[in-house]
## 1
Amino acid sequence: MRCNNAYSGILPTEGGGISLESSDKSLRYDTMYDQKIEVYNCICNDNGGWGIGTNWSSGISIHDNVTERNATMGITAWNSMNVYIKKNISNDNHDYDINLESSDYITVDSNTVKSTADGGGIRNHNTRKTLIANNTVSFNNEWYLCSGISVTSGIGYGDSGMFKRRPSSDVMITNNKVTCAGGKGNGIRVYKYTEAVYAEISNVTIQNNTVQNTISNKCMETFGNNIVIRNNTTTGKMYLNGKKYIDKGKIINKLLDLFNNN
């Protein structure tokens, strides 16, 4: 299927290419049934809202699609659970290329993202129990909050969802390649929008990633509780809870290499 130039005429964000919705916002997660819906080999571009989106859905597989130049997100999962987003190409969408919001149990695997979005490539927002793995992300935007991959909490599109005030938690970011191709921003960033309303982001593991950001000031910046950073290959400055982060393992490996060479 090819979906392009969808626009409702009501609001700019009301023209999604493909939309999957199961019920209204009163539906609780523990009563949500498994829909077993698969979206694949579709092209969704230049729509007035998102390319492919879910809302109040469960059991969705979105794979091998192309979403480009959409007015909000390329692929987005709102108030959903058990969603697999795999092997898609998502480029040059306006807000985010892949957006996860107020959801649970989301897997984002082996996607290719070329982002010029204001927000960045892949965002995990108010979402728990997420795996973000094996993706290739390049980003280029002058907005300083732009990130290749971000984990955030705060106000967002899913404000009417029942879990809108839950901070992101239990997120694994592994084996991704993130490259800053120009502009400002962070390779990987973990932060919350508002101090007074939302609890701290917690239990985020960032490991075995390659993050290259020599153009911007920061390769990686994280805030939260139990943020684990290990075995990453990085170029650029790294900060943990506002303090410059020194990867002791990386220094030890360099010293061992130097010792062995001599």
## 2
Amino acid sequence: MLKPESEADLAALVAGADAPLHVQGGGTRPIGGPTNGTPLTTSALTGIELYEPGALTLVARAGTPLAEIEKALAAEGQRLAFEPMDHRGLLGTTGEPTIGGVIAANVSGPRRIQAGAARDFLLGVRFVDGAGRVLRNGGRVMKNVTGYDLVKLMAGSYGTLGILTEVSLKVLPDTATVATLSIDGLDDGQAVKALSRALGSPFEVTGAAHWPHAAQGSGRTLIRIEGSEASVAYRAGELQAALAGFGEVAFSHDTAANRTLWQDVRDVAPFHAQPGDVWRLSVKPSDAPGIVAQLSGAQALYDWGGGLVWLRVPEGTAPDKIRQPVDAAGGHATLIRGNRSAGVFHPLPAPVAALQEGLRQKFDPRGLFNPGLMGQAA
């Protein structure tokens, strides 16, 4: 395992490399196609370099543990609004998630429907390209938009275009009260309609999920609202009235319990230690129940109002069985846990695939970084 201690060491290592590298942060998210190469971790590139609570700005080295960043933010009453998922329970991995790994995979949680994705909070990056050059793009404040597209490009590239060494992020204040409205007994179609009504309201919903097989075998539909105590109480009352046609709407204002509940939604806790392959579907919410209904033996968890579906299917289920109905609906299906040799990411249209390959040739012409990770099975 290669573990450079500084950005300069990493740049020299890449410049002198003559074989592929398997780039990773904390190693907690082994998502993507099989990758041959010498393992290289950025976990030694640690430390918060700048944190200005008044400016809502944080700059950290890529290998900084996510927990360290969240602790520093919490001490100032702030948070990462994009609520990054912890994959360890779902994937059975250990180690510490790093902020570089979060950004490289664009990891975002339930609050994405209201706040945006990880890439939307990325202000600037430093990274080492395939020639061993240290490149910097973006800035440390939101008004600086220099190199905006390249900054966004690095989020979700899974280390295939460059190795992140530093990220600059916008952070936001935390909320005092977290409340959850819940409706029991809805089927998937009814649940998505209820979630859509809540999301279409003016009451600033920050979480919208449905668990078809929650406690006692009854579906449970969940809606989160956050803010000051008075604001939450008012909005909860208005939403209860708006959703009355779907059944009894319960209200929980236990902030601690609700934080735990939505952490379970974020981390797909019902699938932890459960057998089977796990897929992540991105679809139009209204299409989601119909797609799931076509997949016998599947268990689904809906997030983002139904736009994100976590699917657990019997081990070894053919990828085409999942991808065909998703593709027909114009969505995407990604294998998160299972036999990765069958292809992980949804096949790209030819023009997009050509664009992706062109970017790789520009930033990593020698093909050093995670070859095969984002490719499809032959």
